Amino acid sequence: MTPRRPYHHGDLRRAVLSVALDVVTQEGVNAISLRDLARRAGVSHAAPAHHFGDKTGLLTAIAAEGYGLLADALAEIEPGGLDALRELGVRYVLFALAHPGHFEVMNRAQVVDETDAELIDQKQRAGASLRAGVLGVPDDRRGDGDQAVLAAWSLAHGYASLYLSGSVRTDVDPAATFRGLAGTLFAGPAQPQT
């Protein structure tokens, strides 16, 4: 007879999230199963469902946590000019590389509950920092605000995704490389010489 594992696990929610993030990072989102996560975390098979409801609830919690971490990282940069915008992009890239499991789930809208209040709140926090950074760039250097926000996000997200997939050189400093890329995006018109 196999000894029964105790249900009590300290911070069970954190334990399941940590195991889930490891699975996503190593095997992808599709490998997530609440029963398998319970086995890996050493808890009752019903414990993850108790905390998250279902797989969507678990993945939504991961995405909300990820957006919160991203928002915290972006909030450390004071908006204002091209240098600040470039550093916001660097923070985005470094976040993605440090938290690949979160990053993957955050960018898979079909696996999360987009109506979840916590997810909405954290996405808005992260988006507000990016938007403030873009709008802090002088008008003559950025153009239309909405288009500039999309361009800045696309550059940071695209580079992070390419780096994580190994599609670009990963033997270089990602922050320095991104700073160079960002310089080409918002270079703007040449300043007149006096």
Verbal overview:
- 68% of the residues lie in helices and 0% in strands.
- The protein has 194 residues and is mainly alpha-helical.
- The longest helix has 21 residues, at 55-75.
SSE topology string: HHHHHHHHHH
Please report the number of helical segments. 10
Unreliable runs: 1-8, 190-194
Largest sheet: none
Assign the structural class, choosing from mainly alpha, mainly beta, alpha/beta, alpha+beta, or little secondary structure.
Answer: mainly alpha
Q: What would the average pLDDT be, to the nearest integer?
A: 89
- The dominant shape is elongated
Please indicate the percent range of residues in DSSP E strands (runs of 2 or more).
under 5%
Helix proportion of residues, in percent?
A: 55-70%
Q: Could you give the distance between the termini? A: 87 Å
Rg, please?
20 Å
Number of strands: 0
SSE layout and pairing:
Layout: H1 12-27, H2 34-41, H3 47-52, H4 55-75, H5 82-98, H6 100-106, H7 117-135, H8 139-142, H9 145-165, H10 174-185
Helix pairs in contact: 1-2, 1-6, 4-5, 4-6, 4-7, 5-7, 5-9, 5-10, 7-9, 9-10
